[in-house]
Amino acid sequence: MSQEKEQLLRLHAEDAFAKELEALSKVDDRHRPPGWNLSPWAVVTYLLGGKLDNGLEIEPKYFGNRRLIEVAVATLATDRALLLIGIPGTGKTWVAEHLAAAISGDSTLLVQGTAGMSEDSMRYGWNYAKLLSEGPSPDALTPSPIMTAMNNGQIARVEELTRIPSDVQDTLITLLSEKSLPVPELGTEVQAKKGFNVIATANDRDKGVNDLSSALRRRFNTVVLPLPASLEEEVNIVKTRVDKIGRSLELPADAPPVKEIKRLVTIFRELRQGKTEDGRTKVKSPSSTLSTAEAISVINSGQALAAHFGDGSLRAHDLAAGITGAIVKDPVQDRNIWNEYLETVVKERKDWKDLYRACKELI
Asked: What is the per-residue pLDDT across 303-343, written as a single tens digit (0 to 9) for each?
């Protein structure tokens, strides 16, 4: 890896895991669909991890149901686009990025969905200086990431599809049905090369969601990414991601103890589910989703506090502020729910007294 890339805060998947992708390519002797860098088997191995014949251990990027990833990869091997749905924090963007990196070797062909998007972001725009001086011409055309993916036979990503206005969403219908993008100003069209496909992500929990039309939904195969099934699985995900992020940020802190990660994940799961892990006590759920991604963020924030304002070891008082900030989004309703949970659940657990005191100080 070049020294310049080592200074980047976050590497693209194809750069961060270049050695794994190269090693997989060398041992991958299975059928590769047209335009793919790896076979579907190798793409699934890249995402879920495994040991290769040459002894190299592939690091898991996604912890969850293998069949879901196999369905996603198989979808992309057909002419159907892939829609990853799940509540915030279930790893939709993470999975989409790694799928694009493994299949096309480029995860950067990205359209980020926003409420103010125009059709140009999906189709193409113009270099207005050239447009005014030369008129419509191929040189004046500014391709969107999707147009670039069609030209190169690569995977394009559309993030937060349901944040995009409905009329702009439907721009995708022609692209996905006809595999072509008309350019009427030039009297021509761009036809997709083999290897082109689209991975979109969406959730239906956030405010400002625009429902997908039935016509657009039919162009996608949908895979729902669930929250981790068990406490142990979620703790493992948080620990793995926190270790990796901590190294990239060069935090001078000790590795977060599993005990603290387990306490945090337990709190998030119980508030999400509306009951304690043992099922004996019902609790109220706050307005926030309390996803795995937020748990990772809370641990990272706590590590930074421990490193710069403590002795480097993550403790309850380092977590308390991050936990409160993640849970209390509505200052009235969520604060009452959090306080009630502290009094009825956290206070009663004998090994959680330090966490109870630290959180109560911030309410």
From this structure: 889 888 988 888 999 999 999 999 999 888 999 999 999 99
CATH architecture of 3-224: 3-Layer(aba) Sandwich (3.40)
Strand order in the sheet with 110-112: 110-112, 155-159, 197-202, 81-85, 220-224
Contact 318, 310 (CB under 8 A): yes
Q: What pTM value is reported for the model?
A: 0.89
CB 151 within 8 A of CB 143: yes
C-alpha to C-alpha distance for 351 and 338, rounded to whole angstroms: 19
